Amino acid sequence: MAAPTEFLTYIDSKADAFIQRLADAVAIQSVSGDAKRRGEVVRMAHWLDGQLKALGVETKLVDLGKHVMDGVELDLPPAILGSIGNDPKKKTVLIYGHFDVQPANKSDGWDTEPFELVIKENGQLVGRGSSDDKGPILGWLNVLEYHRDNQKPLPVNIKFCFEGMEESGSEGLDELVEKESKAGGYFEGVDCVCISDNYWLNDRTPVLTYGLRGLTYFKVTVSGPGRDLHSGVFGRTVHEPMTDLIHLMGRLVDQQGNILVPGVDEMVPPADDEEKAIYEALDYSISDVESAAGGQISLTSNKVDLLMGRMRNPSLSLHGIEGAFSEPGAKTVIPAKVSGKFSIRLVPPQTPEAVNPLVIEYLKSEFAKLNTKNRLEIEGLHGGKPWVADHKHWNFEAAKRATRSVYKQEPDLTREGGSIPVTLTFAESLGVNVLLLPMGRGDDGAHSTNEKLDRSNFIEGSKLLGSYLYELAAISK
């Protein structure tokens, strides 16, 4: 059942008002990873709660407890649970999204103020959170507004779960989801889940995503001297922590992306011909990868191998070193303590519980080979399991029909390289199919400078979300 024509024309007619609401949301600096901006994340929760209530959603703010950030105990921002419709004859879909954003400052290289939505002549809506994930959340509000203004019943019952800590590990959310998924809980009766927190592969072809890589993140610290030392006095007289750390970091992954930790790559079975055919059919090329990366630096010229490297194979990336001299100039210091950070993106059947012991054992073994008098400390900072769904499920079929209706083309089926750990929590706790239905494009720069959402994707994406609900109502389980 296609969405009513008047719904599509309504979305077009309200485009300017919807963009203004997005501007209001972007202006709230809800950076969850910055303790000084925690109040802004809370303010964003209350703003969104008010918007939902005004559109007829029954909501409640849920206290998720406290956590420690940068040595300071803070209240976690509240999660929002919402519900609209309780017709037992209708399907019930659970919608998830997050209202926190990545850090952003003009000095990072933004062309404009990151928390002021700028509408460019080419239709790009530039601002932190425009694509990740405030735009998609407001897309659902746009759908609700049509039904409220025209006094139309929704084709399905909807439950909402919005959080403010996704960019910082979704602390407290797993426990909430598990609790509310039990008999008598808020999510009882949910038939399927839809998440709009990812992106197209490119700027031209809509996608449906049926898999996400998991994550395990490590901090490795090497220390020895009691204080920073002068290299002219102590060079070649002591074991230097930086030398040991660089050696360890260099033993984790090779230049072709192969993970050197024994047993990690070997956990993953090779793709069969049917799976390889999915990657071959995707509207994505080597040039798309290199254009997005800003340089001709792809690991291979084989499209299938490259896409599997992004989506269905694990990867290990080195992220940074703390404690080392990094300012301009030439300071000749030997750091007393340095820490390296790296992560491994996981794919089924890998889990942090299975991979972490291999990593720790390997690091300790490689460190022992150095015969150093320095000390090694290994910390697991956070992690999440990978997820893969059945893309032939009726939930996906409804999304395929909606995509064809709005975009007049077949969506690509993708697995994403990134991680949204709560996806698996929903799938396991509720025992239902989870769909990722993206709004934004592959060039949105969600965690980068000048993050944007194209006007067409915001407006047509709102139509897509509404059309999905109508197709969901019509399709047989």
Automatic annotation (TrEMBL):
Binding site for Mn(2+) 2: 98, 132, 197
Coiled-coil region list: none
Gene Ontology molecular function: metal ion binding; metallodipeptidase activity
PROSITE patterns referenced in this protein's UniProt entry, alphabetically: ARGE_DAPE_CPG2_2
Domain of life: Eukaryota
Catalytic-site annotation from UniProt: 100, 166 (proton acceptor)
Alphabetized UniProt keyword annotations: Hydrolase, Manganese, Metal-binding, Metalloprotease, Protease
Positions bound to substrate: 197, 230, 332, 345, 419, 447
Domain Peptidase M20 dimerisation intervals: 210-368
Residues involved in Mn(2+) 1 binding: 132, 167, 447
Single GO BP term: proteolysis
Important for catalytic activity, annotated site positions: 230
InterPro entries linked: ArgE/DapE_CS, CNDP/DUG1, Cyt/Met_Dipeptidase, Peptidase_M20, Peptidase_M20_dimer
Cofactor note: Binds 2 manganese ions per subunit.
Required cofactor names: Mn(2+)
Protein's recorded name: Peptidase M20 dimerisation domain-containing protein
Organism: Ephemerocybe angulata
Source organism phylogeny: Eukaryota, Fungi, Dikarya, Basidiomycota, Agaricomycotina
